[in-house]
Amino acid sequence: MRPDTPLLVYAWRGRDVTFTAADFYRWVPEIAYDEVRDAPAAAVGRALRNEVLGQLGADAGLDDDPYAIEAIDFGADRYLANRMKDHLRDRGGVEPTDAEVQEAFDRLGYGRILEATGDWWVIPFADYSEASAALATIEDGRAPESFPNYTFVEAGDLLAGRTEGHLRRLPLGEPMVVCLADGSCVVAEVRERHITRRTLEEARSEIESVLRRVLPEEQLTDSLRAAVRIRVDEDLFDRNLRPR
Which of 78, 145, 147, 179 could cross-link with 185 by S-S, CB 3.0 to 4.6 Å? Predict the structure, then answer.
């Protein structure tokens, strides 16, 4: 939908006024997401109501209120900041270096797991006390297979569920207690594990595409930061902003 698409026409002080998609988009951040998604007609009506209330507020002289002036100034700054970000992204011309691609790969989770399989056994228990007592007997020589709920999995999918998520991180060949979100626990041992992750070269084109959009902004802010001296009032920060 184009910004100039007319959504409705309403009468205001003796003339017809067209309420466009652009007018609606301005108010979307002030409307509940569920309403915009599930009841767009109601959302348009709410946006129109806000538009009219804003005009009435200006007519009543409320735009001279210091808070209104501050909010208007902040809104202008926010708009210009977002436009500047768009301008920097659209301008392009910045090619990420190999070091920047590697850093993004390491820090931003691009090396995600593609496949994880393994062999393991697991024994479920109601809570930690039962599981830890069972583990103690296993460490004393009791065979895990002797427990009634013992299960052995061969070449199982370690991406399949919440228990498997813990098994991906357990040390190999060492029975351990693993507790789950519902309070239940298992004793488990991973015998063998094979994990395949996405490689840097597989992710390179995606990373480079993202970095071409964000690097111009980062480089601009880095150059501005280098040109000024920034001092933080640590006492004020400690008194008012640090978690207590």
Answer: 179
Phi, psi dihedral angles at 56 (to 5 degrees): -65, -35
CA 147 – CA 143 distance, rounded (Å): 8
Asked if residue 127 has pLDDT above 70, the reply is yes
pLDDT tens, residue by residue, 68-101: 788 778 878 877 787 787 777 777 678 889 999 9
Q: Do residues 134 and 182 share a domain? A: yes
The distance in angstroms from the start CA to the end CA of the chain is 48
Q: What is the pLDDT of residues 53-70, one digit of tens each?
A: 888 888 888 777 787 788
* Prediction pTM value: 0.51
Of 206, 131, 122, 108, the C-alpha closest to 156 is 122
121 and 164 assigned to the same domain:
yes
Task: Give me the residues paired with residue 192 across strands.
Answer: 119
Check whether residue 105 and residue 214 sit in a common domain: yes
Q: Are residues 137 and 183 in the same domain?
A: yes
DSSP string over 184-225: -EEEEEEEEEEEEE--HHHHHHHHHHHHHHHHHHHHHHHHHH
